[in-house]
Design goal:
Blueprint: H1 12-26, H2 32-43, E1 47-54, E2 59-67, H3 71-79, H4 86-92, E3 99-101, H5 108-113, H6 115-124, E4 126-137, E5 140-149, H7 157-178, H8 188-194, E6 201-204, E7 210-213, H9 215-222, E8 228-231, E9 234-237, H10 240-252, E10 270-276, E11 283-291, E12 305-311, H11 321-328, H12 332-342, H13 347-354, H14 358-372, H15 377-385
Antiparallel strand pairs: 1-2, 1-5, 3-4, 4-5, 6-7, 6-12, 8-9, 10-11, 11-12
Pfam family, one: PAS_8
Protein name: Transcriptional regulator, LuxR family
InterPro entries: PAS, Sig_transdc_resp-reg_C-effctor, Tscrpt_reg_LuxR_C, WH-like_DNA-bd_sf
């Protein structure tokens, strides 16, 4: 971190205005993002998150975020990385109103070896967390997290005290919010995040009904000469043989229980389908991932779905770490490292940007080589230049 750091403070008037915003959001008179913004700006945060869960069902009831992190982080967290988050696990075990500052529980040695920090949080830009369990009522739990970035410093004791004062009022607002009908609108949250994902992405069920398609994928499906189309709300391959292969690929995920022959087969969590593009040696690559509500915090709805990422090699766009991760089954840390090297960055510079050691990056590069079947950086760069055609 560079520059002089000053603890976050609020005047009484600023404090009262912030608290008034919490209650306005609870009453539906203000968006939660707008209500959380003064808190976010005062503490100089990377991300502010307020979320509620039904811990009995293991599903998110609502989630509001303020900050600049990529929307892909939400997808990766809900799909995979929430299961490895030591901060959330620690928070769930604490009492209502008990404050948690990550520096008091997870030292540098822990962070250096922990997969959640090294493979997910730090690559996306996060590092320090402070927050509390606002409400714990039966199976309902609400948590607020104040998150700072890699090149920031931990939260001070004074800042924790200010956060606790604000959290007591935020807890009252959350209880009020929970008791209103506003909670029924929670399903729109994931769609709003997915709308900002730059990679072509859609959600389909096992019968290929399209539940969501972002603008990037809509353009591919509507393109003249498309090999995949939206036909009356269903994802369909134009070629009949390809269409059969699409159905079989989805069935490999076994999204519905007790609905298939050969129930002894293990369900797949991901699969890939390559569809030949007309008048070309190239293929449209379809990367399919299972989104089971019980394993993804219910963030994508109550029904099991498949997330499909589409890669058309004819569209020579900038390398997208999210797509590279899908193509080679890389973690966020590994895909960002691979893309950084492909863009010409030195491994030492990438380590400095991320705030980790060069040794950590070299260990991750070794994993990238193994997963991509390459042995040198030059081979990796060449491979990414022709991302599976």
């Amino acid at each position: 971190m560079t520059g002089t750091y000053v603890d976050a403070t609020m005047t009484e008037k600023e404090f009262d205005r912030c608290v008034a915003g919490f209650h306005a959001a609870a009453a539906g008179a203000m968006d939660w993002g707008q209500a959380l913004r003064p808190l976010h700006d005062t503490f100089g945060l990377w991300v502010t998150q307020l979320f509620g869960m039904d811990i009995g069902a293991g599903s998110i009831l609502f989630s509001f975020e303020v900050g600049d992190t990529q929307p892909e982080a939400f997808v990766d967290f809900a799909r995979v990385w929430h299961r490895y988050d030591p901060r959330t696990l620690k928070s769930f075990g604490m009492g209502e109103g008990e404050w948690m500052n990550c520096r008091e529980h997870f030292d540098d040695a822990f962070v250096e070896r922990d997969p959640f920090y090294q493979q997910f949080l730090i690559p996306y830009g996060g590092r320090w967390a402070s927050g509390t369990k606002l409400v714990h009522d039966g199976s309902f739990v609400a948590i607020v997290g104040l998150l700072r970035g890699v090149h920031s410093r931990p939260f001070s004791k004074e800042e924790d005290r200010l956060g606790q004062r604000l959290a007591r009022h935020l807890a009252e607002a959350v209880r009020s919010y929970r008791s209103t009908l506003l909670l029924s609108s929670r399903a729109a949250g994931a769609a709003a995040v997915l709308e900002r994902v730059s990679s072509p992405l859609l959600l389909v069920d096992e019968q290929r009904r399209i539940h969501y398609a972002n603008p990037a994928v809509q353009r591919i499906l509507a393109d003249e000469g498309a090999v995949l189309i939206d036909r009356a709300g269903k994802l369909q391959a134009v070629d009949p043989d390809d269409d059969t292969r699409l159905l079989l690929a989805l069935r490999q995920l076994r999204l519905s229980r007790d609905s298939y022959l050969g129930e002894g087969s293990e369900p797949q969590e991901r699969t890939t389908l390559r569809l030949p593009l007309p008048a070309s040696h190239l293929h449209l690559n379809l990367y399919l991932f299972a989104l089971r509500p019980e394993a993804s915090l219910g963030a994508f709805g109550p029904a099991p779905l498949a997330m499909a990422l589409l890669h058309d090699p004819r569209q020579r766009l900038d390398l997208d770490p999210f797509m590279v991760a899908a193509a080679f089954d890389l973690t966020p840390a590994e895909s960002q490292l691979a893309v950084g090297l492909a863009r010409g960055a030195a491994i030492a510079d990438l380590a400095e940007q991320r705030g980790v050691s060069v040794e950590t990056m070299r260990s991750q590069l070794k994993s990238v080589f193994q997963k991509t079947g390459t042995g040198r950086q030059s081979e990796l760069v060449s491979l990414l230049a022709t991302l599976p055609e």
